[in-house]
Design a protein that fits this description.
It is a single chain. It is built from eleven helices and no strands. The longest helix has 37 residues. It is globular. The termini are far apart.
Length: 260
């Protein structure tokens, strides 16, 4: 076992490398999204398609890629605490010669859960496109759909499932202590499981992207900030509930206006 001073130095080094890696991943993901929004390449591709025309495989793959990169940009910042704690715990256990490798595997497992969500989101967008419920700019064309999504997102913020998943996300050390598994396979499975909790916590918020536009970067940034607040800020879960109440009121107002 290395001396305490030496271990502390190594932990600081691991932390610096992990933070730099996470920052680079998030930076690249946001750069991709900003490039897409600025160039309007993806938008122009979407506008060129008849609204009722079936999408080809390549178009679906591009859509899936957009969602997958967007989930990296939105979720990795809030996953940083659990990744950093995983790296520290793994180093303290002294069972790995290269502790940053399992840390990377843990992150891959976490993102695998969101990659699965991205596939589902792409299929949903495909269905909405086919039903002519999304504009060429990937914004809901139906006030009823927008109101329902706001209402669902608001209600979800108050459900026991949301609170249970959020509790796991807000207590990363407790999660790791109870779910710890050795080796690269164990790291992947832990990351996948933690990612699944995050999907259960945030899926309804991601669905709100259909309301104001899937590539509306202001909404992407706002939802990212809300997810981060819920997970890491003291009493952040209460902030989420307040926002949920506002979403419910907004959804009811939109539906009332659409029906009336």
């Amino acid at each position: 076992m290395p001396p305490a001073a030496s271990l502390e130095s190594v932990l600081k080094q691991d932390r610096a490398i992990t933070i730099a890696g996470l920052a680079a991943i998030v930076g690249l993901a946001w750069a991709y999204l900003i490039y897409q929004a600025a160039s309007m390449a993806f938008m122009n591709w979407a506008m060129a398609m008849p609204q009722m025309h079936s999408w080809r495989v390549l178009e679906f793959v591009l859509l899936f890629l957009m969602w997958a990169v967007m989930m990296v940009a939105m979720m990795v910042p809030s996953a940083a605490p659990v990744v950093l704690i995983f790296a520290a715990v793994n180093r303290n256990r002294g069972s790995q010669q290269r502790p940053l490798v399992p840390t990377g595997v843990f992150l891959v497992g976490y993102l695998a859960a969101w990659t699965g969500f991205s596939a589902v989101a792409a299929v949903v967008q495909w269905a909405l496109h086919t039903a002519a419920l999304l504009s060429s700019m990937m914004v809901s064309t139906s006030p009823v759909l927008g109101g329902v999504l706001l209402l669902i997102a608001g209600i979800t913020q108050w459900t026991p499932l949301k609170q249970t998943c959020l509790a796991h996300c807000r207590s990363p050390l407790e999660f790791l202590m109870t779910e710890w598994r050795e080796g690269a396979r164990g790291a992947f499975l832990m990351g996948l499981r933690h990612g699944a909790y995050c999907v259960g916590c945030c899926w309804a918020l991601m669905a709100l992207l259909f309301v104001a536009g899937v590539m509306n970067l202001l909404w992407v940034a706002a939802i990212t900030a809300l997810v981060l607040i819920e997970k890491v800020v003291p009493r952040g879960h209460m902030v989420g509930r307040v926002v949920g109440a506002v979403m419910m009121l907004a959804g009811l107002a939109v539906l009332a206006k659409a029906i009336g």
